[in-house]
Amino acid sequence: MRSPALRYLLARLDLDPVAPGVFRDPGGDDPLHRLFGGEVAAQALVAMGRTVAADRPVHSLHTRFVRPGRTGVPIELHVTTVKEGRGFDLRSVELRQDGKLILTATASFQLPEPGPRYPDPAPAAIDPETLPRWEDRFGDRRDRLSPLWTRSRPIDLRYVDPPPPLDPTLRDRPRRGQTTLVRADGPLPDDPLLHAAAVVYASDMTLLETALLPLGVVYADGEFDGVSLDHTMWFHRPPRADRWLRYEQTAEVMTGARGLASGRLSDENGELVVTVVQEGLLRPTGGAGSWLAGTAADRTMPGERR
User: Fold this and answer.
1) H-helix or E-strand containing 196?
2) Angle at the Cα of 184 (from 183 to 186), degrees rounded to 5?
3) How far is the C-alpha of 24 from the C-alpha of 114, rounded, in Å?
4) Looking at the predicted structure, is the pLDDT value of residue 267 above 50?
5) What is the rounded distance in angstroms from the CA atom of residue 299 to the CA atom of residue 287?
6) Active-site residues: which are they?
7) Distance in angstroms (rounded) separating the CA atoms of residues 232 and 98
8) How far from 201 is each of 57, 79, 190, 209, 296, CA to CA, in Å?
9) How far apart are CA 175 and CA 181, in angstroms?
10) What pLDDT, on the 0 to 100 scale, is given for residue 220?
11) Where are the alpha helices (DSSP H) in 17-120?
């Protein structure tokens, strides 16, 4: 059975066609005041995908977040056909609220063709039933966390490592990566585009916090404000989002108040399905905390020259 949060997401992805290449989402009643980036990126992919033949699955998505979107406000999605090729179709889309641009994206779709392959090294299996759900991790921490963490989500996300938003060991033992397991919180229709869109949503849930890991920052302490700038994905195989995907994430670099993190999503057979790279704006808030209170040397990321 689908969770209420997953039903809400599917409703947001059921875009209304209002003209050739133009779609509309009337806006939902999400309690958050700002739209989640993964949700609007998923809508962008669906809008572009609906203008492409069903036998051409997406193989790459490049998203640029222009300004924050607001919940409860209609979104218009304008798709442009950039290329119609024998093997590849290319689309671009603009998402607007009240006439203001909030997101731009391009996506490429490929007619499947044979080619050489090589096996991926299969990681050790992890039993998701041994790991607590998202709500169980954060449901009793409403005094410290925003609704972004404490509310139910359409993706069943399970941390394999200690969750960075509340991990006090990060202060003394910073790390460069984390692993989660993700799956849609209920069955999805047999529509490859919707499965890809659900993976877009899931891929945006924890990458920004990953970029801060080497700083030893406990995200819930409010030392940083963060927002996604751009999000790029390569789909190596059509994903099945209602089955468990292992999400290995790595912090790559922090510079110019921008953090870059990468991710690899593998299926239950250990095959690499999707590769993700995201850059986010991460600014210190000026609040109390060990990161701002420390010396300049203390604040240097591991691996950087001092």
Assistant:
1) helix 192-203
2) 120
3) 36
4) yes
5) 15
6) 204, 228, 278
7) 26
8) 17, 20, 18, 15, 36
9) 18
10) 66
11) 37-49
Calculate ∠ Cα 125-149-294, nearest 5°.
Answer: 95
Q: pLDDT exceeding 70 applies to what percent of the chain?
A: 86
The length of the chain, given as a count of residues: 306
Here the tokens at position 75 are 């979104």
Residues with Cβ < 8 Å from 146, sequence gap 6 or more?
Answer: none
Instruction: Show Cβ contacts of residue 20 under 8 Å, excluding neighbours closer than 6 positions.
Output: none
- Cα gap 190→211, rounded to integer Å: 34
- The predicted-structure confidence for 216-234, as pLDDT tens digits, reads as follows 887 666 778 888 999 999 9
Rounded to whole angstroms, how far apart are CA atoms 45 and 204? 14
Give yes or no for a contact between 37 and 95, defined as CB atoms under 8 angstroms apart. Answer: no
CA–CA distance, 201 with 245 (Å, rounded to integer): 13
How far, in Å, CA of 67 to CA of 42, rounded? 16
Average pLDDT over residues 175-183: 96
Residues in a beta bridge with 233: 61, 276
Region 99-108: mean pLDDT is: 97
**pLDDT, tens only, 195-224:** 999 999 999 999 999 999 999 887 666 778
